[in-house]
Amino acid sequence: NLFSAIPYIGQTLVEWAWGGFSVDNPTLTRFFTLHFLLPFVITSLALIHLTFLHESGSNNPLGITSNCDKIPFHPYFSLKDLLGFTAMLLLLTTLTLFSPNLLGDPENYTPANPLVTPPHIKPEW
């Protein structure tokens, strides 16, 4: 685990993240919750950022005057982003619905045989 590489507190962090002395049900529950909630947190922070940026506008901390023409974020950039998102979603949906096996592994079509080990699986010794 990457936490164990931290001096002095690494093992304590590992046990805290695992919820015990080994990977078990609390670990899986914690990481599932993290992976479920993190996209919502990131989306919320991005929307809060865009709201504050839209209300106050971007500032210039260096104090250098710029002679560029400014255009509002909405509707110009927000519609452009929405169009790009929709196009990529349409492309992904088309790929998924009309050729789902395009990116698949050919080994998925080999019939399973419990008596034969695949040749690429070998013991470490």
UniProtKB/TrEMBL annotation:
Keywords: Electron transport, Heme, Iron, Membrane, Metal-binding, Mitochondrion, Mitochondrion inner membrane, Respiratory chain, Transmembrane, Transmembrane helix, Transport, Ubiquinone. GO terms for cellular component: mitochondrial inner membrane. It is found in: Mitochondrion inner membrane. GO terms for biological process: mitochondrial electron transport, ubiquinol to cytochrome c. Residues 1-62 form the Cytochrome b/b6 N-terminal region profile domain. This is Cytochrome b. Residues 63-125 form the Cytochrome b/b6 C-terminal region profile domain. Its main location: mitochondrion. Component of the ubiquinol-cytochrome c reductase complex (complex III or cytochrome b-c1 complex) that is part of the mitochondrial respiratory chain. The b-c1 complex mediates electron transfer from ubiquinol to cytochrome c. Contributes to the generation of a proton gradient across the mitochondrial membrane that is then used for ATP synthesis. It comes from Cacatua moluccensis. It is a multi-pass membrane protein. One of its GO terms (molecular function) is quinol-cytochrome-c reductase activity. The chain crosses the membrane at residues 31-53, 82-103.
